[in-house]
From TrEMBL:
Cellular localization per UniProt: Nucleus
Lineage: superkingdom: Eukaryota
Alphabetic keyword roster: Metal-binding, Nucleus, Zinc, Zinc-finger
Name of this chain's protein: Protein FAR1-RELATED SEQUENCE
Entry's Gene Ontology molecular function annotations: zinc ion binding
Lineage of the species this protein comes from: Eukaryota, Viridiplantae, Streptophyta, Embryophyta, Tracheophyta
Pfam families, alphabetized: SWIM
Organism listed in the record: Kingdonia uniflora
């Protein structure tokens, strides 16, 4: 992800940001290429709240601030990417204790494999975090994992 963001920073020099409308702290801009491809995007940013939206939709689809938005940050001397433009999923520890779904979706017999996998991954991640803090907890967790692995192997063998 770092390299994708770095690529967006590298592209900033290709663009110019033109202020089109000002209303209080809100600026509406057009960001367009100096030369080459005729590309142009409309952006809006609130300089007080440091929130906004923009036309290329890279943030919405990938979760990455685009070069157009970075050009606007540069124009207004915004030296740190505002939190509104940082997806939580790209932050350190984003998945540590989060749930990406409503647990009521776990009820019923027709659960998708991906949802079962996601739920188990989240639960084990939390347990592993706790178990790794002390040697006794770690040893106990490894013992129980061995037991669980044996149980699941026996269950699979019984089905075949």
């Amino acid at each position: 992800m770092f390299y994708k963001l770095q690529d967006q920073f590298d592209q900033v020099v290709r663009f110019v940001a033109i202020e089109r409308h000002v209303e209080g702290n809100v600026r509406q801009l057009t960001v367009k290429a100096h030369s080459g491809r005729a590309e142009s995007f409309e952006l809006q940013i609130d300089l007080e709240k440091l929130t906004g939206n923009y036309g290329c939709k890279l943030f919405e689809y990938v979760g990455l601030p685009c070069c157009h938005l970075l050009k606007v940050f540069l124009k207004y001397d915004i030296l740190k990417i505002p939190e509104a433009f940082i997806m939580i999923r790209w932050t350190i520890g984003a998945n540590k204790f989060s749930s990406l779904y409503d647990e009521s979706q776990l009820e019923g017999d027709n659960l998708r494999h991906a949802l079962r996998h996601s739920h188990l991954s989240l639960r084990t991640s939390i347990l592993f975090e706790r178990a790794s803090k002390m040697k006794e907890n770690f040893d106990f967790a490894v013992l129980k994992l061995d037991e669980l692995e044996s149980y699941l192997q026996n269950y699979d063998d019984a089905l075949t």
